[in-house]
Amino acid sequence: MVMKTRRSRATLFGLAATLGAGLLAGCSGGSGGEQKADNRITVWSQENLAPRMAATKKVVARFEKETGVQVDLVGVDEAQLPQLIMSAAAAGDLPDVIGAVPMGQVWQMYGSGLLDTKTAGRIVDDLDAGTFNANALSLTKDGGTTLAVPSDAWLQLLVYRKDLFAKAGLDAPDSYAAALKAARTLDKGGVDGISLATDPSDVFTQQSFEDLALANGCELVDDAGEPALDSAACRTAFAAYDELAREHGAPGTQTVDSTRATYFSGKSSMMVWSSFLLDELAGLRSDALPSCEECKGDPDFLADNTGIVTSLQGPDGKEPAQFGEITSWAVTKTAETGASAKFIEYMMGKGYEDWFGMAPEGKIPVRTGTPADPDAFQQAWRSSVMGVDKRESMRTAYPVGLLDQLVTGVGDMKRWGLTQGQGTLVGATNGELPVAKAIGSMTSGQLSPDEAAKEADDEVAALQKSLQ
Questions:
Q1: Cβ contact 443:198 at 8 Å
Q2: pTM of the predicted structure, to 2 decimals
Q3: Among 76-80, 148-152, 251-255, which stretch is predicted with the lowest mean pLDDT?
Q4: CB contact set of 223 (below 8 Å; sequence gap of 6+)
Q5: pLDDT at 326 over 70
Q6: What is the Cα–Cα distance from 261 to 254, expressed in whole angstroms?
Q7: Buried b (16+ CB within 10 A) or exposed e, 325-358
Q8: Cα separation, 121 vs 119, whole angstroms
């Protein structure tokens, strides 16, 4: 019954992709389906939280005043974007531009024939490709084709209690061996060894596993594009994740919210979370404040006693690996290309500091500067102010060394499937969540690590077949 349900959803995705490609099949090249120029564009933004929409509207107002181009800004939810895109394509009503699009969704749109890649490539050239992080450009390309304009990135982090590690004489958890040793040693006295996601219905679980898997050389597919989750490296990764989450984590299903809450309450020694954590860890959001016993007398206690690992290495990994996400500006196949290009170039130029400044802890700029001032945007990012209820600059909240790690991490970032040309499959797995489901079954005791690896591999193979 479960297999039938998963296959049905995968088939629906394949049909939707085929539909999208068919609808726009006549729009080859960069502007075959371009709208008649009226100097008015529709922009969807996945930065749809109220404060971020408000900040974006201010930038848009300046753009409209300076250029005369009118922008209809619409906030959309990331989880709803695939369906919204297909519905809009079927109705012949695609937006011109979509902002903050994750790599998997970029590839889904590309695989469905919904992107104007020529205009995206031209924008990167006009801005000067040399001003972009080379890895960000590489991860948003299919061979020599630029799929979208990369904008900013967040990184997955392993955070840990420096004070507890020091007291126990433990090394920083930058390897499987060190993380496992720390989890075993510190899982005592009402404190879990680690907080790690196990929710089978959340992409966060899949992202958390991919972070650990990449560290061990575990890939979604091999170099030939065949599913590879049942490899020896991946079985080792599943086994490590199982021991960490099931044996040394909190009981029950662990979510994006519960993992953070456990660590913030002082009941966990380690946690895997994204860099969006940094403003909350610094006590700048009232709805997500550190609540440990020591935090009552010293609000900065947890931040001061938290160490951060940006890249991990497993026993089968050739080098440390960093997982993260790059979000981009996408130009759709029917966009009014002139106005759309002006808008994106503005958002990556005059409006860029405001864009990444909305949430600098999770929007690390991938354009470092301009030809005239090559380091301008990186320096502006370091001084950006983060937080919601309280505000503090990145530079004063965290040491220079950590900011350097975050910037370097973008260049070191790796992702499943993209370099093997399987971006469409990556996008589909983010919807179907075969790995998250296998993790959920494994950590609840229904599957062994080897069985979880095999089930995830079989599900990816079925999903891949449905996309052909």
A1: yes
A2: 0.89
A3: 76-80
A4: 420
A5: yes
A6: 10
A7: bbbbbbbbbbbbbebbbbbbbbbbeebbbebbbb
A8: 5
